[in-house]
Amino acid sequence: MAAHVRKTEDVAIGVEFFRARGCRIAYRTQGTGPPLVVVPPWTTHLEAETALSGYRTFHDELSRRHTVVVYDRWGTGLSDRERDDFSLDADVEILAAVVDHLRLRRVALLGPSHGGVAAAAFAHHAPELVSHLVLYGNRSSALTSGGTWLALRELMLANWPVAAQSIAAVACRGAEPGDVEAFAGVFQAAASAETSVAFQDAAVHDDVAPLYAAIRVPTLVLHRRGDALVSVDEATVVAGRIPGARLEILDDEAHVYCVGDVVTLAARITSFTAGAHGSASAQLSAREAEVLDLVVTGCTNAEVAARLVLSVRTVERHLLNAYTKLGVRGRSEAIARRLSQDPSTLSRSP
After folding, report:
1. In the predicted model, is pLDDT for residue 141 greater than 90?
2. CATH code for position 177
3. Cα–Cα distance between 143 and 133 in angstroms, integer?
4. What is the spatial distance between Cα 263 and Cα 337, in angstroms, rounded to a whole number?
5. What is the pTM of this model?
């Protein structure tokens, strides 16, 4: 299933490498500020992806607030192509190696499409390392599940260029002219048909429901309303399974995150992640703000729970999410930060 490894002299400027599990992993960093790691989806290619109409703009927008880290999934792109372990655990191990190699103490994670499962698993296993989790375009799709997947699988193995073009036509719906061809090119450059099939064969057997339910970090689920690969209903299911997750639906169509209205997509991401580092623009959910405002007025957790008809444990979770978004270490710092943002809270009666 292995394709040829790209030679170092062929890669784009700015791509670096490190080794994990005995394999070479390609990555690129951009910008300054707190780190945001983009977990790779189905297959990736750091060089070929730059041909997508919104690739540079999307990453430029993210890098205004973050040091953005992107890397090629093991088995694809400029990373080593030889791979025989297609498990979720292997992808999580590579993500952990990226964080360790760059000596990142705490990161925000963006998990687009297939990358969302690995991002969610890492957030579950190492919540102390994750400030925020952003999931985009996640869940199984009509194109890559059930009988449809079996038919597509057969086409991919029989005629890879035709299959890549077909997938790109659906994944880039509503994008700029030329994006379908560009994404079909990315798909073929990123990995062989056999490797791409092996990834999806492994993915359809992952039971992610228990994984989502166990996440305890602030989570944003983003979705484009017209996505033909993943429905809004599926995004709603993902958000509903993650305790305290926020769901935002964007008026756009493309499944591929680097095409379409990438400026709005990037803005929604950074407005959510900015609070992880003490920014005054931290975006608390309505419930988190409500809970924190009652705490500011002197309510205990039990009193907040009684007033809002919540369990004490739920109140504690909302407060933990608020602390993380505000970049504070506890109740006193959170109260001080909240008052600095909204002094009128002092006059509110519990």
Report:
1. no
2. 3.40.50.1820
3. 25
4. 29
5. 0.76
Among 321, 332, 261, smallest CA distance to 295 is for 332
What whole-number distance in Å separates Cα of residue 327 and Cα of residue 337? 9
Domain count, the chain: 2
What is the spatial distance between Cα 83 and Cα 293, in angstroms, rounded to a whole number? 51
Assigned domain for 332 exists: yes
- 3 in any annotated domain: no
Distance CA 104, CA 99 (A): 5
Name the one residue in this structure whose structure tokens are 């931290």.
282
Give the integer Cα–Cα distance in Å for 277 and 271: 12
Q: Select from 255, 277, 299 the last residue of a domain.
A: 277
CB 195 within 8 A of CB 81: yes
Q: Is residue 163 part of a domain?
A: yes
CB neighbourhood size of 179 (10 A): 25
Q: Angle 339-133-28 (CA atoms, 0-180°, nearest 5)?
A: 115
Q: Which amino acid is at 37?
A: V
Strands 219-224 and 107-112: unpaired
Chain centroid to CA 10: 28
Calculate the average pLDDT of the chain. 87
pLDDT digits (tens, 9 = 90+) for 43-81: 999 999 999 999 999 999 999 999 999 999 999 999 999
Lowest mean pLDDT: which of 95-109, 128-142, 278-292?
A: 278-292
Owner of token pair 């390609």: 26
- Expressed as residue numbers, the domain containing 322 is 286-347
Residue 299 sits in a domain whose CATH number is 1.10.10.10
